[in-house]
Amino acid sequence: MSIKVLIVDDSAFMRVVLSKLLEQDSLIQVIGTARNGREAVERVKSLHPDVVTMDIEMPELNGIDALKSIMRECPTPVIMLSSHTTEGAEATLDGLKYGAFDFLAKPENLYKANLDAIGAELLIMVKSAAKTQVQRLAPWVFNPVMTPRSPVRLTVKTDKKVRQIVAIGTSTGGPRAIETVLTSLPASIGCPILIVQHMPPNFTKSLADRLHRLCQISVVEATHNQVIENGVAYIAPGGYHMEVVFRNGQYRIGLNEQPKRNEHRPSVDVLFESVAALDDVKKHYVLMTGMGNDGAQGMLIGKQKGASSTIAESQKTCVVYGMPKAAIELNCVDQVVPLPMIGEKIIEQLQRY
């Protein structure tokens, strides 16, 4: 049975390009197109597509407002198409907040872009989106317990030695999962948190800034050679692998542009393996929602080298049960818990040491 897709874009050229990319696969059928958000809402109601691809910037009704209407009136998995600009990144995060399945960053120059690579990525997204339970994409509400604070970074004491490290990996559905976990952690948490979220450049900076305003802990996009501190979450910048290294008596961030691992840079495996290689520090690993198997081998290596805890998000809360499932199948997961309980579980494990 074919996957029915509705393409929404104000560019006629882009609608043709996307149609051709998608219909390379015999399992996918483009059943219609729309030029703006208003048409999109109407055609979702009349055509009942399995998946919608939606441009963000459109006349009459933009992609974010159209997404809100679709998720309210006729919930359907939506893949947002976003520009690489800071504004595009902010709008994309809004889209994920309001229930978008995932997003694809549009090339700055379509004529010079690698359309084969873009098409392959889009096909994977569409097929995965078609399998997703729509209720898991319901717009999420920011944690009501937390009060958004000013974007000024908290001052973190540097006289406390790093004795434990939490490493987190996630992909599709990750921004809401990371927010759920980080907003549940107290400012007094006595360790640094290293996070790989599969995202392109610019998007990770916007994500870090947004989370920093919502969390009690400090959240930053990591920089090369940065000393890691307790009470701070570091998000790997898009386009760079992130490692933790011990140098000159301190744990530091190491960034590099080595080849992709598991089709990703940053890769969760790269982070997890670097943490596993550290001495004299307790290590905790967390894998949450995401397509593929990135992080599973790294968690296995961490487990084999004496991880203090390994946690995976349970299937019932994952947007995509790929990465956690891969780790569970390798028998390297100590605890499988639903997303709302992961923060609590991390604190519980940290308090053991």
Describe the structure.
The chain is an alpha/beta fold and 353 residues long. It has 2 domains: 3-137, Response regulator (Rossmann fold, 3-Layer(aba) Sandwich), CATH 3.40.50; 164-350, Rossmann fold (3-Layer(aba) Sandwich), CATH 3.40.50.180. It is built from 11 helices and 14 strands. The strands form 3 sheets. Strands 8-9-7-6-12-13-14 form a 7-stranded parallel beta sheet, sandwiched between helices. A 5-stranded parallel beta sheet has the order 2-1-3-4-5, sandwiched between helices. α3 (63-73) links the parallel β3 (51-55) and β4. The longest helix has 17 residues, at 115-131. The radius of gyration is 20 Å and the shape is elongated.
CATH topology of the largest domain: Rossmann fold
The oligomeric status of these chains comes to single chain
**Overall pLDDT confidence:** 91
Taking pLDDT < 50 over at least 5 consecutive residues as the criterion, the unreliable ranges are: 142-159
Care to count the β-strands?
14
**Element order: H for helix, E for strand:** EHEHEHEHEHEHEHEEEEHEHEHEH
Tally the helices: what do you get? 11
Radius of gyration computed on alpha carbons: 20 Å
CATH superfamily of the largest domain: Methylesterase CheB, C-terminal domain
